[in-house]
Amino acid sequence: MKLRLFLVVASLGLALRPAGVAGADSAPHPRSPIADLAGFVGGVWTGDLPPEKDGAKMQIELRFAWTEDRQSLRFESAFVHGGKRSPYTSGMYAWNAASAKFVIFYTDFSGSLVQGPVARDGDFLVHDLTIVDAAGKPDVAQVRLHRTGPDDFTNTIFLRKNNAWEKFVEVHYHRVP
Questions:
Q1: How far is C-alpha 26 from the chain's CA centre?
Q2: Distance (Å, whole) CA 79 – CA 157
Q3: Which residues, at least 6 apart from 150, have a Cβ–Cβ distance to it below 8 Å?
Q4: What is the pLDDT along the chain (177 residues), one digit of tens a residue?
Q5: What's residue 52's pLDDT?
Q6: Cβ contacts of residue 159 below 8 Å, gap of 6+?
């Protein structure tokens, strides 16, 4: 028990190392299935969101980086409105060997917890998500990521309505170094 606690504390200390340290943006561990997501790491992904009701434009920024052990991928996103950034999500992707699937787990600015399996469907990464808001109310969503180039992908979000998936929003992301 003490050894396990020490290992947890030690690994937490390693995880707090600043992002600029050597190895932070290295390739994934060579035996990790998460290597399939390596193409998302690096640079800043930006997507234009649909205009607000008043016509105001808003963007979303997304950054991916390897965790220190290179066995999972963390991400952060923010809304950009009028040149000002507002945090949106913080989370990670990891490989779950028990289910032989990627999993995603993140929180958002409103306190919701989102989690679920991620599976390949041809050229798409399909996320079947359970969303629990800060009040404890559950909901479901499906996200389909489609890489359209080395620096481009489309994120389409579907919500469950009347027992069918209905497209909620589609955002095209482009990466700049």
A1: 18
A2: 17
A3: 39
A4: 333 333 333 333 333 333 333 334 556 656 668 877 889 999 999 999 998 888 889 999 999 999 998 889 999 999 999 899 999 999 999 999 999 999 999 999 999 999 999 999 999 999 999 999 999 999 999 999 999 999 999 999 999 999 999 999 999 999 998
A5: 86
A6: 139, 140, 141, 165, 166, 168
Q: Please tell me the number of Cα atoms within 13 Å of 37 on its side-chain side.
A: 30
Q: Is 116 exposed, middle or buried (0-12, 13-18, 19+ CB in 10 A)?
A: buried
